[in-house]
Task: structure prediction
Amino acid sequence: MIRDITIGQYYQTKSVIHELDPRVKLMGTMVFIISLFFGKSIWMYLAVTVFLAAVIKLSRVPLKFIVKGLKAVLILIIFSAAFNLFLTDGEVVVRLWKLKITKEGIYQAVFMVIRLMYLIMGSSLMTLTTTPNNLTDALEKSLGFLKVIKVPVHEIAMIMSIALRFIPILIEETDKIMKAQMARGADFENGNLIKRAKAMVPVLVPLFISAFRRANELAMAMEARCYHGSEGRTKMKPLKYNRRDRIAYAVLAVYLCGIAALNIYMGGRII
Amino acid sequence: MGIVRTENLTFEYIRRDEEGNVEGITTAVDNVNLDLQAGQFIAILGHNGSGKSTLAKHFNALVSPTEGTVWVDGMDTRDDAKTLDIRQTAGMVFQNPDNQIICTLVEEEVGFGPENIGVPTDEIWLRVEESLKAVGMYQFRKASPNKLSGGQKQRVAIAGIVAMKPKCIILDEPTAMLDPSGRKEVISVLHELNKRENVTIILITHYMEEVIDADRVFVMDDGKIVLSGTPREIFSQAEYLKRLRLDVPQVTELAYELKQAGIPLPDGILTKEELTAALTAFKG
Result:
């Protein structure tokens, strides 16, 4: 299941979206997520879907890849759908013993599922098209104002980019440790939840030990290469806006205004 | 005075128990005096626990001596104000390729060092290109380091150091985790750098095959330098090396055994060609 997590992975290809300034993509993802929670009319969701589909098409990342990221949060989606379905008051459609499904509940559940799915898809699209380094550069630069109140922005960004770089390595390591334990008779697949959780302990202990050892070595390697924080550091790839990015910002603004206008026009109506 | 010089260098690890009381002291480096000449290919040999890695860390100011002094290009490693200059002069490559790669793209990885020392952007790109070409990894500049083989990763790590334009590169068992072909790749890149760019190479290793072409070899045991000289001088003492739990190259070993069996061969034969020549001479 760990392999299903696509958040934080990078899909290498050449596309307009890949070449956008990471700050645009960061802003775009934020705008997109906000727009998801704006209203509840079908037309709005249609507009959001068209926008998301267009961006996915432009990014040239296979849809299969983006959808794969949903598997990891499937349970969460099912739970929130169920809660919304059964616990919303309103016009009763079906009554099952003590549970009742209302018309409002159905709408709520469907919208919640769509929202959560799009939320995951939108944010994985950002990480799939942006290298982690670019992403943290963008975070560092757009959150730079926090430095005034002594937030170690550069350090946090560096920690994030290293964490992302080590995800595949630690996954591989977990795999190796599990196989080594399985070879000696460990059982990860049978038994109830508690039993299986207990079986994970002998995996987690060596994993943590090796992670600390890696961290120690990495810190030394960074020091040996003169890393000493952001002071006096230059950038190999400084962030610069160009024409493409300005167009993207304009598109975003139009999108946001469009969604807002649509919601005002629709009022609280669903259809 | 050489590029790296040590005087009475001693380093002790203090082992403590859970309450922080001193349990014992391990002397990892014991009164070492070295004077390494610039432009040479230097190898430091020793089995596990002989103190060679600790010694290497002194050259990069990663550890400070307990006693004695280390100078890198005339700078005392204990001087905190000089630490960055020292690390720029003497770059260091470590054993595990995975644990020393910081970035997710090869070119960004190579650019990491120059970024830290404040090289302007255009110059970083030039240096990245040059150093990737120097190690023969230029075609992989857009790849993710995770997808490379061990030997390739280690070449990227070397490029990352080369991009900082050091006078000297210290490599702490860079081939220990590689397969034979990766090992060959890395060693030939090092010789290339040494010859073409005139970079001093300090190679810490326990593989004998890697030191045959070195200019100067030091052998460490129990924290002390016990032998020093050219590879030929070192390998002519096959018996002593074996006592230090070090192997000699296969060809040298064969020559040594033949000699023990009564065939008169010269000491310190290093290559197949030499052995063939010596045997032919004996037959004729």
Q: What stands out?
A: The mean pLDDT of chain B is 88. The CA atoms of residues 17 and 160 of chain B lie 39 Å apart. Residues 4-248 of chain B form a domain with the Rossmann fold fold (CATH 3.40.50.300).
